[in-house]
Structures are given as structure tokens and as C-alpha cells.
Amino acid sequence: MDKFVNVALPKGRLGEKVYSMFEKAGYECPSIREPNRKLIFENPEAGVRYFWVKPSDVAIYVERGAADIGVAGKDILLEYEPDVFELLDLNVGKCRMAVAGPGDFRDDPGRTLIVATKFSNIASTYYNSLGRDIDIIHLNGSIEIAPILGLSDVIVDIVETGATLKENNLEVLENIVPISARLISNKASFRFKSDKIEEIAAGLAEVIKND
Ligand code: PRP
What we know:
- This protein is α/β, with parallel strands linked by helices.
- It has eight helices and eleven strands.
- The protein folds into two domains: 5-93 and 180-210, 3-Layer(aba) Sandwich (D-Maltodextrin-Binding Protein, domain 2), CATH 3.40.190.10; 95-178, Periplasmic binding protein-like II (D-Maltodextrin-Binding Protein, domain 2), CATH 3.40.190.10.
- The longest helix is centred in the C-terminal third of the chain and has 17 residues, at 194-210.
- The two termini are 35 Å apart.
- The site of 1-O-pyrophosphono-5-O-phosphono-alpha-D-ribofuranose has 13 residues, from strand 9 and helix 6.
């Protein structure tokens, strides 16, 4: 068995923050901080190997066992429902999933609501729970533009600071769920590398507590 714990980290600002937490927990890998385009880094002494992957792909690596553990946003976990264990709320990458639209938007229950989103599963689950009929337009980014151009009535999207909505004259109409980054584990890895994975999770929990 691979003696390393393979960790998929989300490339980008959140990933840097998350790596700092691993570092503080004692799993540093100094070469990661050097300016280079490498995607894999390991520290044999600490027994960890890090990969930088696209944030929305972390759960795929972990579900399929290419990574033992990883850090993924709750938005991705809710949207794709990967078969993984969620071990810890890392308390970073905090934002919320919300319905947004023009401030004067009034929903007419007599007609199908048109919703643009990157999060089709979250949107349909939410509106199903309300018994509201919707049509989903699945987009891959710049969702805010959809209601402005009349492509949709509202959007379901991530709101962090609210700046994107504000600058496009949109407002939060309903909050769906709070989001933050989560430590996830492959199910088989959690059995076979449980000591090490639990040690890492405990170390991170300690870092969160002292923050
Ligand atoms: C996300 C989200 C919003 C924005 C919210 O987009 O889809 O557009 O961030 O952040 P704010 O409330 O702080 O303005 P992202 O940057 O991931 O790009 P995307 O539009 O291509 O999905």
C-alpha cells in the first residue's frame, strides 16, 4: 500500500488558505510555496503528497480513490453527491447558495419559473421541496447575466461578498444553504489509512480551534 496520504487540494485562493492549515497542522511541504507550475508535491517525512486540482474536480479524485482525502466546497458535495465521507467543516471558503434576481422580481405561481444556474441539482432539489415548477437553464459561469438579458427569471448561485450581484443590479431573494470548505475522504482509504487520516483530521480540527 502507498505509504503516503494523497491529498487533493483545490487550486486557487481557497487552496492556498487550506494548504496553510495543513502546514500549521504539521504536514508542511515547502516546495509547494516555490514559484513553479508543478501540480504534485510530497513530503515523505510527514507522509503526505499534495495535488493541485480544479476545485470542482476534487470530489472526483477522492471518490475514485486517486486521492485519499481532499478539500471540496459544500456546494460541490451537494451538487454532485459524491460517495465520500465528509470528515470536517474547515470553516473557510464561507459563502452561501442563494436565489437572486432583480430586486423588484415577484414570482407568479401561475407560470413556470425559469432558473439559470451552474448548480442544477441544488436548484431542482430546492424548488422541489417548495413544490414549485421550474425550468432550469444550465450555464457554466457568469450566471448573473442571465436575468439581465431575459434568459431567466432568477439565478441560483454562490454569493460571497455580494459584490457581483450588486454591480449587476441583482439582489438575494432567498437563501438556500450556507457553504464552506469540507475535508472529505475516500471510503476505502478511510478504512485502510484510518490512523493517518484521523490524525490529519484531528490536526486540522486543532488548527481551526486555535484560529
Ligand atoms: C462566483 C459566483 C458569483 C461570485 C460571487 O463566481 O458564481 O459570480 O463568485 O462572489 P461575490 O458575492 O463575492 O461577488 P466565480 O468567481 O466562481 O466565477 P463564475 O461566475 O465563472 O462561476
